[in-house]
């Protein structure tokens, strides 16, 4: 993903018409569009190809299965036109290796969740976040997902992965995180959903976030 605005849209609307309208309105401000279960379960995987005409698509399926199932999921997602996939890391190195291998075959990206941004994200993830981040680096992942709601954790994770891996960071706006703070803490991109797609003017909301980050 090319870094221009440091902003990724989390497009968690559930219907095609809204998804395409919002994606069109904000496409000049976002470096990528993240889609996940809400939109894909609502409209099918075909929506990925339509959105990919506007911006690279990150498929946020938080893949978390045995290596063979992970491989099948990644192949489907990349064949559908996604540029990147988000996986979990707690399933272990062999599962992650499977995703990285498929991504290499397709020349696509893999991002690994380290610690989630919601309050419950500390319950089980906190003690293993650093280990998962290290594993992502060792496995050759493109980057990690780390919480904008806790910039200090982004700083900790950056120390572990160094400068070679990217950090994409959800939790800005609706979850309380600040885009500027988490970019200053070492994130490469912020991921923003509700603050943009629920706004009366998604383009203005996206532009404001870009201006705040001055990335
Ligand atoms: O809170 P928002 O509406 O800005 O959306 C954040 C998006 O990022 C949403 O798609 C959610 O599923 C995803 N995400 C997190 O919020 C937190 C994580 O740790 C990982 C992904």
Automatic annotation (TrEMBL):
Give the EC number. 4.1.1.23
- Describe the reaction catalysed, as an equation: orotidine 5'-phosphate + H(+) = UMP + CO2
> Which EC class is the enzyme in?
lyase
Protein source organism: Methanococcoides cohabitans
**What CDD domains does the annotation carry?**
OMP_decarboxylase_like (cd04725)
Q: Describe which pathway this protein belongs to, using the record's wording.
A: Pyrimidine metabolism; UMP biosynthesis via de novo pathway; UMP from orotate: step 2/2
**Subunit record text:** Homodimer.
Q: Say which family it is in.
A: Belongs to the OMP decarboxylase family. Type 1 subfamily.
- Key words of the record: Decarboxylase, Lyase, Pyrimidine biosynthesis
Report the protein name in the record.
Answer: Orotidine 5'-phosphate decarboxylase
Q: Name one GO molecular function term.
A: orotidine-5'-phosphate decarboxylase activity
Tell me, what does this protein do in biology?
Catalyzes the decarboxylation of orotidine 5'-monophosphate (OMP) to uridine 5'-monophosphate (UMP).
The record's section on PANTHER family has: OROTIDINE 5'-PHOSPHATE DECARBOXYLASE
Write out the residues that bind substrate.
12, 34, 60-69, 117, 170-180, 193-194
> What's a Pfam family in this record?
OMPdecase
Tell me where in this chain the Orotidine 5'-phosphate decarboxylase domain is found: 6-209
Q: Which residues form the active site?
A: 62 (proton donor)
